Structure formats: C-alpha cells, structure tokens
Amino acid sequence: MITASSLERVAVCPSSVNLPQFGRVTEASTAGNVIHKFMEEACAKGTTAALENVPAEFLEACQILALESLPTFQPGAFAAEVAFAFNINTFECRELGRNIGREYVAHGAHPTNDICGSADVVGLTDDAVVVIDWKTGYSHQDPSSLQMRFLGTVAAQAYGKSEAHVLIYRLRDGEVSRLHGHLDCFQFAAVQQELAAIERVANSSGTSSLVVSEQCRFCPAMPGCPAHARMVNALALEGGSALTAADLAATLTVDGVKRAWALKKAAEIALDRISEACKLFASTTPVPLDNGKVLGPCEQEKESIDAGVVHKLLGKEYGVEVADAVVEMAVSKKDLDSALKSQAVKAGTPFAPLKRSFYEKIRAVGGSRVRTVISVREHSSAKG
Ligand code: SF4
Questions:
Q1: How far apart are CA 189 and CA 199, in angstroms?
Q2: Which residues make beta-bridge pairs with 178?
Q3: What are phi and psi of 87, to 5 degrees?
C-alpha cells in the first residue's frame, strides 16, 4: 500500500512499492513515538504533567506543540495521530481512526485503491483544518511536500472544510523551526489528481521502474532492491580502479560532478545499510574475515578518568599551572539543556525563553567560543 510518508519516494521510484518491504525504526519514528506519547498524556493529564516525561531533546518541540499554544480551535476539536484514507478511484477522503498505529487495512482501508496516512495532530477551525506534523533530523520535507499536501487535502475534504493549514515543526540540532503552508479547494483538486496518477503509475510499473536516488535512504525495499544491488556491484568493481583523485578530477565537468555526487550519496546510503546489516548478522554469528580478524561482538575495557580528581591530584603533586594546562572541564549542550529543562519544568516556565536567556548569559561572560571552519560540502547557495 502507498502511504503518505512514501509518496515522495514513489513519485521518483514507482516500482519501490512492488518489492518486498522490510520494516526499519528510524530517528523520525523515535521522535514520532515521543511526540505521540506526549500528546496522549497532555490530553489525559495536562501539558505540565506530560512535559515531565519528555526527553530534553524533544522538550522545546513539545512545549511549542502544547495544546494551549495551538491556534484557536473549536473546543475539543483537536486530536493526535489521526489516520486518513484517499480512494484513487472515487476521490473519497475519510478519517479511518485515531491512534490506530498504521493498521490502515484493519481499520477499513483498501490495500490497493486507498492511499493512507496519519497526521501527528489535527485541529479544526470554522472553515479550515489545521494539520501539524513533526520532522526530525535532516528531513527536507516542507509544507509543499506530497505528504503534507496529502494530509491537508484529505483531512479538509474528510471534514468538509474549504482550506487547509499545514504546519511542520522541524527539530534539528536542538532548534525548532515552524514552517507554514496553505491549501485551498482548487489545490485540493490538483493534489487528488496527482495522487491518483502516482498510484496508477506505481500499480502498473511492476519492478521495471526502479530509480536509485536520495529517496533510497529510508526505502523499506532497499535490502531486496536489484537496482541498489547492481550499483553496489558496480562500485565494488570500480574500487579496483588505479585512477587517482587528481586523474578523475581532471576528467570532470559541472554536469559530471552533479551526476557523480548524486551517485556518491546513493552509494553512501547503500554502504551504511550494508554495514548495519553485516553488524546485525555478526552480532549473533561471528564471521572470520580474510584479513585474519573476526567481525563479531568484542568486549573492551575503556577507562575514563575524572577531570576533577585529576586536576586536584596534579595540582597537589606538580602545581596548579600544570593541572590547568592538562585538565579541561567539559560540558555538553545536551547535558546543559537537560538541566535547564528540569529547571523550566520545576518553575513552570517555557523552556525555549529560559534556554535562550541562559545561553545569552553564557555568551555575555565569554563562556562560548564560535570557530569558523571552511570545508567543501553541500550547502544552500545563499551561503556560497
Ligand atoms: S532502494 Fe532506491 S531504487 Fe530501490 S526500490 Fe527503493 S527507492 Fe527504488
């Protein structure tokens, strides 16, 4: 079945839905679980109590999502984890249920005629539906993505609303940003046509339309995908090439680099997945390697030393200058945020402003350093 979260991939690689699918827990699904649990608890016990159980890295995000901070909804007209279905033949849009855990077919969806998807939060105003979704890590999805247009369109049509507001809260590197998109009834019709076309192409493509791209990263069919296997084999053969980087660079053009870079990214994804799969296998079945070593579980003792104790001992034995030169006190942003989170919850104040104010105090007394590092990497053209 095509789901909302797979639409971008299916649009690029239609045959990906026709290969066997293998489940995989991603960072996104971990965050989804945290937010899902927070919403459930917030509805049952109130936001303050629910925030107590939220890990520090998701706290700011959950505070923004706190029910009190949502746009004005009709009383009681918001819900978490709402599942929808869109029928590609009749264009009917309907709610399948809430908290159904992606069990779409068990809740009435048709396995081939429906496209299904769930929204993290759905709210209703007089005229519009408001769909809120969370993205974590390096997801590039924005409100114009197929997934969000699907959710906005199908939710609005299911509840008879003429507009949809789609909001994405993106959690990245401890910062939360909010992206807003809007759809009206003309756009609903275009989205429905687009969805039906994607489903038609996917259903009729068999396994002949496999396209290796960045979409492979979270593709559940990757372990059994012949296109990916071919690419890995080709890489293995190329690995024996005697060409140096300078030889290769001399032959490249802008278009060549564009293609090679896309291939490199797809290859890295494949290699990560191969490494993950090999380690998973070897965790229960150690594998002797050709270099005489073994890939398998390995017990190691790692000693860590306490900076405070070392500083004190060094100072006593060799003087405080030696101790200061050797021992560096360390603090991580994660631990600091966790401590600030407890203080915010204890004081009943929002985490974001408390955190901002504390970081400003750190900077004011010269407690933070910003280094400028120049590296060759992908970046938005505005930074170029
Ligand atoms: S791994 Fe890539 S090429 Fe293979 S089915 Fe998935 S998206 Fe398509």
A1: 16
A2: 169
A3: -90, 125
Backbone angles phi, psi at 381, to 5 degrees: -65, -25
CATH architecture of 4-205: Alpha-Beta Complex (3.90)
Is the pLDDT confidence value at 379 over 60?
A: yes
Determine whether the shortest distance from the Cβ of 273 to ligand 1 is under 6 A: no
CA of 207 from ligand 1 middle (Å) equals: 10
Kindly list the domain boundaries of the chain, sorted by start residue: 4-205, 214-279, 299-380
Contact by Cβ (8 Å): 38, 65: yes
> Is residue 12 lining ligand 1, measured as CB closer than 6 Å?
no
Using the mean position of ligand 1's atoms as its centre, give its distance from the Cα of residue 135 in Å.
22
Q: How far is CA 212 from CA 13, 110, 309, in A?
A: 8, 29, 54
| Closest Cα to atom 4 of ligand 1 | 225
42 lines ligand 1 (CB under 6 A): no
Q: Residue-wise over 239-263: b if at least 16 C-beta within 10 A, else e?
A: eeeeeeeeeeeeeeeeeeeeeeeee
The residue among 183, 167, 110, 90 whose CA lies nearest residue 133 is: 167
Q: Is 226 exposed, middle or buried (0-12, 13-18, 19+ CB in 10 A)?
A: exposed
Residue pLDDT, tens place only, 34-44:
777 777 777 66
Dist. CA 252–CA 319, nearest whole Å: 58
SS (H, E, C) 148-182: HHHHHHHHHHHCCCCEEEEEEEEEECCEEEEEEEE
**What residues does 179 pair with on adjacent strands?**
168
Q: What is the value of pTM for the model shown?
A: 0.63
Q: Which pLDDT score, from 0 to 100, does residue 286 have?
A: 87
pLDDT digits (tens, 9 = 90+) for 166-215: 988 777 665 667 788 999 999 999 999 999 999 999 988 888 888 888 78
Rounded to 5°, angle at Cα 128 from 123 and 134:
45
In angstroms, the CA 119 to CA 158 distance is 13
